[in-house]
TrEMBL record:
Taxonomic lineage of the native organism: Eukaryota, Metazoa, Chordata, Craniata, Vertebrata
The protein's Enzyme Commission number: 2.8.2.-
Protein name, as recorded: Carbohydrate sulfotransferase
Top-level EC class: transferase
GO annotation (BP), single: carbohydrate biosynthetic process
UniProt superkingdom: Eukaryota
Region annotation Disordered: where it falls in the sequence: 61-140
Family: Belongs to the sulfotransferase 2 family.
Length: 420
């Protein structure tokens, strides 16, 4: 009699364990549905379908019906940059699937929708704009346009990465995120691209962190040498992974030739105790015929043509520098899935749109003042043309080839008609 009882007890225990396992699997799946991709994504989910009624993932898609215009947007309806699932865990490879970010598409049931609502994070501070709503007096059509511009930029970058970059599934390492600054309060990750507004962006991050009440009060040396901002590679693997998965990742770029000329003017046309001896002396030594002793000693007076000879030389006398390094190497956009891509050429518009989306205080706007050499004319397309006119057509072509991936990835037009 003992054996049948024991068998019946084991059978009953196994059945109970199976039921518990199935329940836990379902609970785990529901919890996964609650995890937000980023603060930016959560706030954008609160927009209505009307805010994005002109969005079309495929050419020729019909406009939404009047009935659809009043419905709240579910996470599955928004463009990819607003509802993207978190990237693969730090140190892992991306998975492949049918849904956003390579994940299997999931059906959002009524039960899970309630869980999503309950798990939404608290809103921003009282002095910040309400998330998901256009800025005060903003044109709704303009709000929609900026959202669609972001979607287009992200889609292009991903397409270029998929087509040209075999490294798209490589493991992310601390090296790849070494140029990314962290602002924990508003959950922002900003990748520094020198000569693309990075000084003023650091000022904005310092204000968001509470270091200063306004950007105007923060000096240049404080921005670059104060060590008040944390870099992403200063965290352990768990900290890096968590922030990559949940923070808003931001990248601002600039027309490559303009950025290059801006860097040259800043570093070589003004006294500089670092760039003249470290870069100027080897450049003059290798590329200037009959260089004077003073030039060889100080490294001052490098011409733009000499600088370009150095830049395009396969056997450079000195390595690259972040001020003229490719953006796709500085910020690894094929490995880090950026949520927002801004342009220097539309900085005020893009930056203030982003600040509103992330719940920044209403009185915080992107500063427009020139960080240094404020008396000089800003580097523009006209000035860039003048500098590159000093080069031969062949040298201009080689320079364009050198920055080709940045031109392609961020959709900048060819700066000269004779380029191919």
């Amino acid at each position: 009699m003992k054996l049948p009882c024991l068998f019946f007890f084991i059978l009953l225990f196994g059945a109970g364990g199976l039921v518990l396992f199935i329940h836990l699997q379902d609970l785990s799946e529901m919890v996964q549905q609650q995890v937000p991709g980023s603060r930016f994504s959560v706030q954008m989910r609160q927009m209505t379908t009307k805010d994005l009624c002109t969005y079309s993932r495929e050419a020729g898609r019909a406009e939404l019906s009047p009935e659809e215009l009043s419905r709240p947007v579910s996470p599955m309806q928004l463009p990819a940059f607003e509802t993207k699932t978190p990237p693969a865990a730090f140190g892992s490879r991306e998975s492949e699937g049918d849904g956003p970010g390579g994940q299997p598409a999931a059906r959002v049931t009524k039960r899970r929708r309630k869980l999503l609502i309950k798990s939404a994070p608290l809103g921003p501070a009282a002095n910040a704009s309400a998330p998901g709503a256009p800025p005060p007096r903003a044109d709704p059509a303009e709000w929609r346009r900026l959202s669609l511009v972001q979607e287009g930029r992200k889609r292009l970058m991903k397409d270029v990465c998929a087509k040209y970059k075999s490294s798209s599934k490589r493991t992310v390492t601390p090296y790849h995120v070494s140029r990314i600054f962290v602002e924990d309060k508003h959950k922002l990750l900003y990748c520094e691209v020198p000569k693309a507004g990075c000084s003023n962006w650091k000022r904005v991050l310092l204000v968001l962190e509470g270091f200063a009440p306004s950007t105007q009060e923060i000096q240049h040396n404080t921005v670059h040498y104060g060590n008040h901002l944390k870099r992403l590679d200063s965290f352990n693997y768990s900290g890096i992974s968590h922030r990559l998965e949940t923070y808003t990742k931001v990248l601002f770029v600039r027309e490559p030739f303009e950025r290059l000329v801006s860097a040259f003017r800043d570093k070589f046309e003004h006294p500089n105790s670092y760039y003249h001896p470290v870069f100027g002396r080897p450049i003059i030594s290798k590329y200037r015929v009959n260089a004077s002793r003073a030039a060889l000693r100080t490294g001052a007076g490098v011409t733009f043509k000499e600088f370009m000879q150095y830049l395009l030389d396969v056997h450079k006398p000195v390595g690259m520098d972040i001020h003229w390094e490719h953006v796709n190497r500085l910020c690894s956009p094929c490995l880090v899935d950026y949520d927002f891509i801004g342009r220097f050429e539309s900085m005020e518009e893009d930056a203030n749109f982003l600040l509103h989306l992330t719940g920044a205080p209403r009185n915080l706007t992107f500063p427009s003042f020139k960080d240094r050499h404020s008396h000089e004319e800003r580097t523009s397309a006209r000035l860039t043309q003048q500098y590159f006119a000093q080069l031969t057509p062949s040298e201009r072509q080689r320079a364009y080839d050198f920055y080709y991936m940045d031109y392609l990835m961020f959709n900048y037009s060819k700066p000269f008609q004779d380029l191919y």
